[in-house]
Amino acid sequence: MNIQKQLIGGKWVLSSSNETREIINPFNQEIIAEVAEGNAEDAKQAIQAAREAFDKGEWSRTLATERGKLVRKIASLIERDKEELARLESLDTGKTVDESRDDMDGIADVFHYYADLAGKNKGEMIDSPIPNTISKIVREPVGVCAQITPWNYPLLQASWKLAPALAAGNTLVMKPSEITPLTTIKVFELMEEAGIPAGVTNLVLGAGSSVGDELSKNTAVDLISFTGGIETGKKVMQAASSNVKKLALELGGKNPNIIFADADFETAVDQAMNGVFFHAGQICSAGARLIVEESIHDKFVDALVKRVRNIKLGSGFDQNTEMGPLISAEHLEKVANYVETGLKEGAKLAVGGGKPEDAALKDGFFYLPTVLVDCTTDMDVVQHEGFGPVITVEKFSTEEKAIHLANDSVYGLSGGVWTEDIAKAERCAAQMRMGTVWINDFNVFFAQAPWGGYKQSGIGHELGTKGLEEYTETKHIYHNIDPQPMNWFGKN
Ligand code: NDP
Q: Listing from the earlier edge strand, what are the strands of the sheet with 3-4?
């Protein structure tokens, strides 16, 4: 098996330690690739390459419209290789190929969107209060950006960072999750093919504790953009204080989905499942916390459980599969423990709650889609992100109570509200303390709208124009066109 390499300063290289890592298919535990296992020393070299490339200025001073053309070229190469990328993503993550194809469409859209924005950085003229002066605001690239991504949406999360960073004229070092690097490696090849100059995009593979830590603390890095769990995010934040780096954190969520009795019942049941079970619930914005109006609670749970029982588990490459495996044995264990905790706290199992018995699935990291009822806000299982195919259900009696429950969380990533009453929907959306609120929908995101968390779900934004601003510094240039002596100091 060929060892897949890292990209440092325009060269594809092995790890400085020569160590490698085997990448496993979570459906059957087969080894699908062997990749270089980078370390802190490799990260230092990559940072140096990105630093030199930035300081040389070739990329940051390339006309923004020209940068935009190269970013668009990356989008078209992703479209050209969509099927290969989708299959690779499914092999590495276990998600269905249809889901991966959707991811690839979204990823190409993100590169197109930032390609468009690259040439539209207008800056701003200020109406200066001082006579004979010109005052203008310009946006400039931040410099060397370190980017760390998780395993659940490997290439989607990478695209939200790569496209705006390049469009804005930065150089970068990316570290994907150690267990799902394959599509990211492929896209670094595509960026090279598109003509991005050597040293502008650097890729280091390996573990968070070594490579990720170095990227977070190294003082030659100007900005760190991190997507992952809250606890890791806190470590990154501390390490980033070494040189007061710019910091963007996209962290976890335990996202409430409020169902009022007047919602369209069938649609709400159907979408409550879509909100959670894509990629086996391993979604930061999963609507894993259902909050259902008392008067329809039992009927809703019955309908939900009936549908959940029918979810077909299997290989992401089988057309009949609706849900694939979890990412790893370790994560399967975590999800199983999470459900056990809920049951000990008094939640009741309505469906699922274990590994499937089907012999065909025995080598995969499968967990049954699970619904826990009789949940209350004080339970750990409600307060913490399970990151698996698990829904907790709570009840409410009034609109005020529903909003109170939804906001009673350290997270603030996203939430949903289902009702046919427009005024009620708007009232709820206005009071929900989350970065994204969906009305009569769930888990919708696109390149044009910003994505980011309130509270401990993060700092800053990805996507939209705000996602580009993250990768720029704001400079005020003040020009006195009629300079005169002030005679303030030292004048007899
Ligand atoms: P982790 O926090 O475990 O890891 C995320 C990344 O951080 C990985 O690349 C990991 O490396 C790296 N890392 C680990 N330790 C350190 C460290 N000390 N310093 C720097 N980097 C480090 O998250 P998961 O990969 O388990 O991803 C799941 C989490 O991501 C969930 O909480 C989910 O909600 C969140 N997420 C948030 C999103 C959002 O948009 N808000 C989107 C997607 C996911 P490695 O694992 O290779 O060792």
A: 3-4, 31-36, 20-24
Closest C-alpha to 456, from 140, 163, 228: 228
Q: Which tens digit of pLDDT belongs to each residue from 428-449?
A: 999 999 999 999 999 999 999 9
Token pair recorded at residue 427: 């009232």
Task: Encode 59-97: b = buried (16+ Cβ within 10 Å), e = exposed.
Answer: bbebebeebbebbbbbbebbbebbeebbbbbbbbbbbbb
Ranges of H-type helices in 207-264: 213-217, 230-240
Contact 97, 104 (CB under 8 A): no
Distance CA 164, CA 157 (A): 12
Least Cα distance to 120 among 50, 71, 178, 193 occurs for: 71
pLDDT tens digit sequence for 66-93 = 999 999 999 999 999 999 999 999 999 9
pTM over 0.90: yes
Residue 207 Cβ inside 6 Å of ligand 1? The answer reads yes
Distance CA 221, CA 199 (A): 14
Q: Judge if the beta carbon of residue 467 lies within 6 A of ligand 1.
A: no
Q: How far apart are CA 181 and CA 171, in angstroms?
A: 20
For 186-207, what is the mean pLDDT? 98
Neighbours of 14 (CB within 10 A): 17
pLDDT for the residue 492? 75
Distance between Cα 161 and ligand 1 center (Å): 14
Contact 210/112 with Cβ under 8 angstroms? Answer: no
Catalytic residue among 250, 293, 385, 399: 250
Instruction: Note if 250 is an active site residue.
Output: yes
222 close to 145: Cβ distance less than 8 angstroms:
yes
Cβ count near 274 (within 10 Å): 12
40 CB under 6 A from ligand 1? no
Q: What is the pLDDT of residue 1?
A: 82
Classify residue 59 by its DSSP letter: T
- Looking at residue 104, its pLDDT comes to 98
> And the tokens for 68?
């935009």
